[in-house]
Amino acid sequence: MAADYINCKNISKAFGVVKALDSIDFVVKKGEIHGLLGENGAGKSTLMNILYGLYRPNKGEIFLDGKKTIIKSPLDSIKNGIGMVHQISTLVPEFTAVENIMLGSEGEKLTLHTAREREKIKEISEEFGLQFPVDVKIKELSAGIKQKIEIVRALYSGATLLILDEPTTSLVESEFQQLLKSLKVFVEKGVTVVFITHKIKEVMEACTAVTVMRKGKVQARVEKEELGIEKLVKLMFMEQNIEVTESALPKVNLPEIEISKNPVLQVKNISITGNDTSPGLKDISFDIFGGEIFGVAAVSGNGEKNIAECIINPSVLHSGDILINGESIKNNSPLDVFAKGVSYTPEDRIKEGILNEGSIKENVLLGHQEEERFLKKKLFIDWNETALAARDVIKEFNVDTPDEELSMRRLSGGNIQKAIIGRAFVSPLKLLVTHNPTSGLDISTVEFIFKKLVELRNSGSSVLFVNEDLDELMIVSDRIAVLHDGKLKGIFKRSEYDKYKIGLMMIGG
Amino acid sequence: MTQKNKAYSLILNNLIIYGIAIILALGVISIFVAILGYNVWDALRTLLTTSFKSSFGFSETIKKAIPLLFATYAFTIPFMIKFFNIGGWGQMLFGGTMTVVVGLTLGPLGLPAIIMIPLLLLVGIVSGGVFALVAGFLKAKYNINPIISTIMLNFIAYQFVNFIATSDAFKDPLEGHPITQKLSESSLMGFFGEIPASIIVAFIAIIFVYLVMKRTRLGFEITSVGQNLIASQTYGINFSKTIMVAFFIGGALAGIGGSLEVINIHGKLIEGFAKTSGAQFGIFGVLTSLVVAGNPLAVPFAAFFMSVLLVGADSLQRTMQVPVEVVFLSQAIIVMFVVIIREKYGKGNK
Amino acid sequence: MAFITSFIESVLVYTTVYTLASLGILISGRTGIFNVAGEGIMLASASAGFLAAFLSGSWLIGFLAGALMGAFFGLILAFVHETFKVNQFILGICLVIFGSGLSDLLYKLVIGVRLSAPIAPDTLRITIPFLSKVPIISGFLNHDVIVYFMYAATFTAWWFFYRTKIGLETRAIGENPKAADVVGINVSRRRYLATIIGSSLIGIAGAYLTIAITKTYSPDISAGRGFMAVGIAIFASWKPQRAILGGFIFAFIEVMSFQLQIISDKIPYQFFLMLPFISILVIMVVFKKHIEFPASVGKPYSRE
Amino acid sequence: MKKILVFVLLFSLIISFSVFGGGETEEGTDAWAIKIAAVFPGSIQDADYNTIGYIALQEAANAEGIKSAYSEKVAVPDAERVLKEYINADFSIIFVHGAQFNGAAAKVAPNYPDVTFIIEVDAKPDTLSPNIWYIERNYYTGFYVLGALASMKTETGKIGFIGGLELPFIRGEVNAINQAIKDQNSDATLEYIFVGDFNDPLKARQAAEGLMSQGADIIISAVNLGNFGLYGAVKEANKPVFLTTTYTDKLTQAPDNYLSSDLFNFSIPVKGIVAKIIAGEKSGFWSMEYGEGKARSTQFPISNVSDSINAAVKQIAEDVASGKIVVEKVLGEVLQ
């Protein structure tokens, strides 16, 4: 049995009132390729950022090689041999690879030994099997190459512990296989690796031990010999105790209703160019009919955001067409789309959804500002009418507020979400596009929101429900489409639901 | 229940911020006055009470408050979408200059006041607005920082005033300063006793700004973009259009301010107008607006308070020979303090 | 030939003001601090620098005082921004107003009323043997020491940013502060340093106005040149080698506008006086494609 | 709402200040004593136009033993307000230094017949107001002498003139210089530039550099603080360039390049007028006479010239003073 290389004891971290980590104990042994597995928001990155010195924990201790170590800044962690490759590229896009790697390294500051360093970098990249062009600006390189550069940067500064935060998000299969080979080389050369991911398949292929996290807590540490897909899926998506799980999930009554013959939404062969954070969309087609909730299941960063956004703002389409009630919306502005009876609740409710300083009333108006009902003589906003609509929203959606004048930022997350969804219901709705409407909400709020979605469905309208949480999708969707790497992997009817199968498909299995 | 408490604490919060601001204001000025060796108590009393001791002091305060109000609006409206219009002064100059150009050109026609005055105000609105629109356009189309463009436009406007006031067509050849001929009687607004009639226009403008910002779709869009650009774009608000409109409205208000200075106070174009206590109204407008965090509804009150300080500062110079720079300097420090305090304590829980 | 030489010579004087000020602005801009307070810093330093030079009788002490005053402004800007994350532009505007008030007040307090204006001591002039006699070239070389300082500062800034590792790191902060942070560079400390050093260069530019160009102080002496410098820094895409070019171009336009006024009788002189301001807008529009910003300029940085 | 509430509170604060601060009048109590106030367009520390105005005020006040006050850096549009402020504070004599304020004075004067104004003009008005004293400044006479000096001194035959703004008195100066050049039978030509501001040294310097690069070797300056830009320009010129200034002796600023100055002494008229006002004469016209020891004069000896030029210019100055040479006064336009 190898010695504990990292031992994090009782680590807690809160951002404001949000608890990100709750008494975490985390152990990595020397020579491991240690998988840190969990859903989005499980706290994996936060834990690693604490280890790397970017965040300070509120509580807890870190032991390196058995010695208690205080890490105040990345400089401390680098000195202790910790290197980290972040989820979002931390390279300077305007610089070349050599320049990026030279940054921050030890040595004299008043000269640039580019030639000398270039040789050293080439040496290291050959040693570890990570080749890349060293003199091209980073902004012209692909995500896979950027990642290699980040790894070499960590090794260059003498890392003996390498943390890879979601290294595979933007890698194609061949690149992943290459990375896998490199990982083995690292271990041979005495580098320990922590590998953050939510893809079980990768963990199975790459790791020698796994820690599973869920909702800011460690579920379990699983040794290599105990690794099994089923076990990991269970640990990752469910509570350990199945009975608890059953009652912890929202309950919704989903009656059989007749589905209309004509599609409300037709998506025809659409493609969207990808970028750093998303693979884009690749030739996707599906129809949604009146009276159904159409779920889209995907792990974050697989094109699911594009699906939601391109319906509201079709100008982002690269090719293909979108039709609403048979009419193409290809050249429409968002307001044109809204006028066709579509509404939208975005993924990040605070950043993309609300006017922080505005009142509930003003927020209810947002997106409806050009509708005749709220506009007198094309110029004046009818605030009385808006107030009525806002009061309806407050009443219908149980928003906890004394009145509609309260500033939006004074509401809790759940109430904000209820108001945003309520806003979508203000005008007659044919299609609601909603993205992660329940993230971070308590179970009763989730149930309430689902009830509203189902009511909408029962009235003959449709819902495009993009969600990260598979359990929730299965509870409330009539059909589920699975998206992976910007491609549509399959569409399941309710009768075909199989959590294990869908979960596997979501993570590229 | 808790929500109500929160709303109440918000009011308290603001009270504290402005309370601290005022105390700081007086404190900073006192320190400077004391360093310079003057009597602090006399200075403070002069500063705060000159406006209210005589009808003259009060009317002077109003005369300063009106252009200051417009200069403050000129900064405030674009600031609602987080852009800086430092060009209020230039827009005032340009609006006032165009007013004189049109007024002198149409003067011989002998149009009645009922036509002339609204027409001249309209000239101020349009020319001030268009002048500011240049900056809005440069931002929307070429991504040029409005701080730079509006300041450059200020200098251009300043030379333009000079050009008109010394041009053969308009100048008053006997003046020892660049000054144009007088506008005809029918182009001028009168006074209610000592109070300029432009106070009516100021009140209309206050109501106009209130209506536009609170009652119209335009105002809603400007407010929304300022609060959350991403959400606004997601929900169909056009950013380029909004920024240009905001700059136009700001400039138009500055333009009226310039027009009123010309047709109500001076009756002609004087090089160096739209200044007070040795500095441009534009700069005081920026400071005034920053004190109230660019809240358009608080602008009239802030402009009045600032005018009280300015009239007081003039009196301070006259009676105690305290340099006006002291007040000027203090205002910058005060705004800095207020902004820091607001940043630190004013946001509540984020 | 003599005409061109003397023309270049006078252009160089204003090039020095513009280049030093825009260098100061771009140095802090390279770490993400957008210093729009240039005008206020120049005014305050013009006053402080002149007073120090006059009282001490030493031009060197004058420039040091100007630099110190600039550093003081830089410190305020960096401290308030880094500590409270207050919007850089609001801060900058407050500092402009603060500087313009401070400059007159200082002068008033120290000098008071005199019938003959105080004069600063002559700034050391350096003529380079032989080269200072060659036509045209001598226009660049027959100057006071600050002009040479400007050459040196431009070269040093270029060398620092493009030929040293610490400069590379500093540029990295402006492009992506997170990238610098994760490799162990202290972002906040660098921002302080860059802002203070940059502001002291702006201060030297301000002191140059009074100590070398006019030899005495008069109110509002920078007359918008601090803002022009911001425009030049933007036009220069925050590159030192382009700042000196931009400084030369705008000084050229400014000097040229007076030449044109002599030649042309028809066009009102005010339009020539507008020329520098119009041209900065036109150039920013025309060169839009060639203008790049450090990605983080104007934005606060915090880890969480 | 909340903001409004705050400002209501603020208001009450101000009001309360005014209540306990009220009672006494703003400035002093001796309403019957004569007090003199002055309004200056620039800083009294400018060692130039404003300083000599300030000295005139002090000397007049001291001579009569009356109280004085002043406002400096008054913007033209603010003048009316400042005048009224002094009237409100019981000042009975107001010295308005600078023709740019005459509009304001003319507007205010009729409403306050008890107050006497002293203003500066460049031409005698057709009718005199009952409570205004007019000081005629006669810039052109002095500039005639400077023009004669320049046409004798120049070697390149090019004389430069730098003015702030194109105003009547400036045109008078240009015309007087041209007349002097013609009277001297000189081939010299006069190039003139306006820099848009009397007080911007940098622009003045650039203008001087422009003139110098066109060959001018004499610069006649008619700017105020702008002069400070000129000294550097002439000192650093590649060939000798000389300059003249106005108002005060500025020899020390550029000893090797300085010729002379067109001197003003406002103390003479202001002292004289104040004495007359106190004696009861509330209106009148006072032309500043040219000649040695008078209100207007040229600074002698002229620096950096030969004795013969010095003597010749002195003779011209005496002829102008005695009326032997008549300098034409043309303010309307610059004659070509």
Would you kindly provide a brief summary of this structure?
Chain B is built from 13 helices and 4 strands.
Question: Could you describe the 3D structure shown?
Answer:
The complex is a heterotetramer of chains A (509), B (350), C (304) and D (336). Chain A is an alpha/beta fold. Helix content of chain A is 33%, strand content 26%. Chain A contains 18 helices and 22 strands. In chain A, a hairpin with a 2-residue loop joins strand 14 and strand 15 (327-328). The relative contact order of chain A is 0.10. Chain B has 350 residues and is mainly α. In chain B, the strands form 2 sheets. In chain B, strands 1-2 form a two-stranded antiparallel sheet. Chain B has a two-stranded antiparallel ribbon with strand order 3-4. In chain D, the strands form 2 sheets. In chain D, strands 2-1-3-4-5-11 form a 6-stranded parallel beta sheet, with helices on both faces. In chain D, strands 7-6-8-9-10-12 form a 6-stranded mixed beta sheet, with helices on both faces. The longest helix of chain D is centred in the N-terminal third of the chain and has 20 residues, at 2-21. At the B-D interface, helix 1, helix 2, helix 3, helix 6 and helix 10 of B face helix 1 and helix 3 of D.
CATH topology-level name of chain C? ABC transporter involved in vitamin B12 uptake, BtuC
CATH class term of chain C: Mainly Alpha
Binned strand content of chain B: under 5%
Distance between the termini of chain B: 20 Å
Helix content of chain C: over 70%
Oligomeric state of shown chains: heterotetramer
Radius of gyration of chain B equals: 21 Å
Number of helices of chain C: 12
State the strand order across the main sheet of chain B.
Answer: 1-2
Amino- and carboxy-terminal Cα gap of chain C: 62 Å
Characterize the main sheet of chain B: 2 strands, antiparallel
* Rg of chain C, Å, rounded: 19 Å
- Helix and strand sequence of chain B: HHHHHHEEHHHHEEHHH
Succession of helices and strands of chain C? HHHHEHEHHHHHHH
CATH class of the largest domain in chain B: Mainly Alpha
* Helix segment tally of chain B: 13
Give the number of domains of chain B.
Answer: 2
Annotation keywords:
B: 350 residues; ABC transporter involved in vitamin B12 uptake, BtuC; 2 domains; two-stranded antiparallel ribbon; 13 helices; D: 336 residues; alpha/beta; Rossmann fold; six-stranded parallel β-sheet; six-stranded mixed β-sheet; 12 strands
